[in-house]
Amino acid sequence: MIGLPAGTRIWIAAGATDMRCGFNSLAAKVQTSLAEDPFSGHVFAFRGRRGDLIKILWWTGDGLCLLAKRLERGHFIWPQATEGTVSLSQAQLSMLLEGIDWRRPERTQRPQSGL
Mean of the pLDDT values across residues 83-109? Predict the structure, then answer.
């Protein structure tokens, strides 16, 4: 995961997005649908209809970055809402990008003793 500056907010757009969209189309979606500024330095994530492709738009101060990831198996966990946004922490974004359910992360091993 790319290290984000402190104070960076991470927003995921609820619902499905047309994954043919590029820089300009996604920036326009941020402005119109999400009512946010795509040049704020915050991160905006969009998911395709099938759920195996995600695009992330991020303004770094000198240009827009468009990151894309496709899972070979499984799908990205997304909110059930069809519109609006959800804010994530950087840890939750990392889990999302790995295909982990960021809403209910569970430890794989419980402690055996309190020592």
Answer: 79
Q: How many CA atoms lie within 13 A of 94 on its CB side?
A: 8
pLDDT at 114: 63
pLDDT for the residue 23: 95
Instruction: Point out which residues pair with 54 in neighbouring strands.
Output: 47, 69
Main-chain phi, psi angles of 20, to 5 degrees: -80, -15
Rg of the Cα trace of the chain? Answer: 15
User: Is pLDDT above 60 for 84?
Assistant: yes
Return the bridge partners of 59, or none.
64
Residue 55 in tokens: 């695009």
The token pair at 63 is 């240009």
pLDDT at 98 over 90: no
Residue 79: C-alpha distances to residues 14, 29, 85 (Å): 6, 18, 9
